[in-house]
């Protein structure tokens, strides 16, 4: 007998991008008195409670959660688990930040025990912050990725990660070679790709730290295995962009460097993409590549204000990334707030509905996982959150007077943090 559980609360999920629907209401479903029926770890039904509860399989366990809001688990499309300990490293911009804070911290991950300890802590924190799927950087040490995948597999999490490929312009203790990075990545792919809910991402750090030979081998890995991701950084900071032009004088621009090495495509996810020329936008769009928009990191490192409307105009799937440790929090609610604030500065204000879309279905689309996660579509994997709009005295005071769904989401995004995440459910099980 399969085990059924029905969760009764308010329910919200997205069917489309609310900013691009001609008829606004068709982009999401909200059931104030709703219910979510889970069977064998998957979504069986979602709708108004009278409709869902009317037709329950016998023996269904009922969980009543009045006053709570169920949403799909949050998706972090760009984060570095080895950078937890450099969070909030103040005083510098990207290139100095890497040398001063990040590289020394990443050195420690050649120790498998240390890597496992941090991977455990990171995944526990993801769960308590409501992040159920993430696209994750390891370090150059393959052990860092073994440790991460091993911990993620034990928790039955849908996670994507990869070993950093980096053969120049970093301290010697963090460099690999083109051949070793190819061999180590291939061994990790064979060990972990498609194991349970895990997928592998070929992960050159960014163009300045890889030789052309290494980028070519990254492209070769993508062609040799089905379903791999490409995960890297793109056009984050003006000094970085000038440097890329010096290192790759034959390229038209930064996107062209990756393009020349066969790295663009529908499973390629580029973090940042803050400063792109028109041709770069077009090429990102025509290649089907995705963007991880990391507003918290872009603000903290002073990188710039991402143009979300350009990404939409070019049909580029875009999700939100925390980019910890360049970002300042693992919390997607905080990241939504940062995205809102960036949109205000650009005078292209996004709605709270748009922000929640980006953190759920938008992220799933950017990772080509919308047939598995990101919404309460029937058959999807049951990764979801129980949100408590009265999690703190301030939130309770404020949400008591909200009159619309949009207003409530705005308050949760602006005033909320991990205390709002009352429960995180992974494949139907409380984590
Ligand atoms: Zn990053």
TrEMBL record:
GO terms for cellular component: cytosol. The lineage of its organism: Bacteria, Pseudomonadati, Pseudomonadota, Gammaproteobacteria, Oceanospirillales. Residues 70-429 form the Amidohydrolase-related domain. Its EC number is 3.5.4.3. GO terms for biological process: guanine catabolic process. This is Guanine deaminase. Pathway: Purine metabolism; guanine degradation; xanthine from guanine: step 1/1. It is an enzyme of class 3 (hydrolase). The keyword ATP-binding does not apply. One of its GO terms (molecular function) is guanine deaminase activity. It comes from the Bacteria. Pfam families: Amidohydro_1. Belongs to the metallo-dependent hydrolases superfamily. ATZ/TRZ family. Binds 1 zinc ion per subunit.
């Amino acid at each position: 007998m399969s085990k059924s559980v029905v969760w009764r609360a308010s329910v919200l999920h997205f069917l489309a991008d609310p900013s691009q629907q001609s008829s606004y209401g068709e982009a999401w479903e909200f059931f104030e008195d709703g219910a979510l029926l889970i069977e064998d770890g998957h979504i069986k039904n979602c709708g108004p409670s009278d409709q869902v509860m009317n037709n329950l399989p016998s023996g269904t366990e009922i969980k009543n959660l009045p006053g709570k809001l169920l949403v799909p688990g949050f998706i972090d499309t760009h984060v570095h688990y080895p950078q937890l300990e450099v969070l909030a490293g103040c005083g510098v911009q990207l290139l100095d930040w890497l040398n001063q804070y990040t590289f020394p911290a990443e050195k420690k991950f050649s120790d498998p025990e240390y890597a496992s300890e941090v991977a455990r802590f990171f995944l526990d924190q993801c769960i308590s912050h409501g992040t159920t799927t993430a696209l994750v950087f390891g370090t150059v040490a393959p052990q860092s990725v073994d440790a991460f995948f091993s911990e993620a597999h034990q928790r039955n999490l849908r996670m994507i990660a990869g070993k950093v490929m980096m053969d120049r312009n970093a301290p010697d203790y963090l460099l690999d070679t083109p051949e070793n990075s190819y061999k180590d990545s291939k061994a990790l792919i064979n060990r972990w790709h498609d194991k349970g809910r895990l997928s592998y991402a070929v992960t050159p750090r960014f163009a300045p730290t890889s030789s052309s030979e290494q980028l070519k081998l990254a492209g070769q890995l993508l062609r040799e295995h089905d379903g791999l991701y490409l995960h890297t950084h793109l056009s984050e900071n003006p000094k970085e962009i000038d440097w890329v032009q010096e290192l790759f004088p034959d390229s038209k621009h930064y996107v062209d460097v990756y393009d020349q090495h066969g790295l663009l495509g529908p499973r390629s996810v580029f973090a940042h993409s803050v400063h792109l020329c028109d041709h770069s936008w077009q090429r990102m769009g025509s290649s089907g590549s995705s963007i991880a928009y990391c507003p918290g990191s872009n603000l903290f490192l002073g990188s710039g204000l991402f143009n979300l409307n350009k990404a939409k105009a070019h049909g580029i799937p875009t999700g939100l990334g925390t980019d910890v440790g360049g970002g300042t929090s693992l919390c997607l609610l905080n990241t939504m707030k940062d995205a809102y604030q960036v949109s205000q500065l650009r005078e292209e204000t996004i709605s709270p509905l748009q922000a929640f879309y980006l953190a759920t279905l938008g992220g799933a689309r950017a990772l080509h996982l919308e047939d598995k996660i990101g919404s309460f579509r029937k058959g999807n994997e049951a990764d979801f959150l129980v949100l408590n709009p009265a999690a703190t005295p301030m939130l309770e005071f404020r949400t008591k007077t909200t009159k619309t769904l949009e207003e409530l989401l705005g308050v949760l995004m602006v005033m909320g943090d991990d205390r709002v995440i009352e429960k995180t459910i992974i494949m139907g099980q409380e984590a």
